[in-house]
Amino acid sequence: MATEVTATAGRGSSFLRIAIALQTATIFLQAVSAGLLLTEPYGETLHSVGARVMYGASMLYLLAAVLAWKPGGGPLRPVWHATGFLVLASVQVVLGVAHVPSVHLPLGVAMFGLSVLALVRR
Fold it and tell me: What is the pLDDT of residues 34-46, one digit of tens each?
């Protein structure tokens, strides 16, 4: 029984780490596409598609955190972190749609830093 719980917790932890890495990568790619947004005609499309992918990655992070916590008996803290990221991603989308770059850009930088921090801690 203990071996089964340990194996389940290990798989949940690996999935969580992959989800955080994916989120971090998508946030970084959003920074790249933001630069293209300013210089290339296709930048707006790329940034818009990237926003949807980044939001999906944030939802995947939350799912992975819940799966690592509930069945494996892992800590609850990653669930709260993932929930916070999903809230930040939601705010980021609203700010982007509303064209508020004075808050949208710094929030994106903060999200990238926090995501890297979450990845390093995992």
Answer: 999 989 999 999 9
Return the H-helix or E-strand segment holding 25: helix 2-39
With contact defined as beta carbons under 8 Å apart, do 105 and 113 qualify? no
Which tokens hold the place of 64? Answer: 């992975």
Averages of pLDDT over runs of 10 residues in the chain (122 residues) are: 51 88 97 93 94 97 93 85 97 96 97 96 84
CB 12 within 8 Å of CB 68: yes
How far apart CA 46 and CA 35 sit, in angstroms, is 11
Q: How far apart are CA 105 and CA 66, in angstroms?
A: 29
The pLDDT tens digits of the residues spanning 21-30 come to 999 999 999 9
Phi, psi (deg, nearest 5) at residue 83: -65, -40
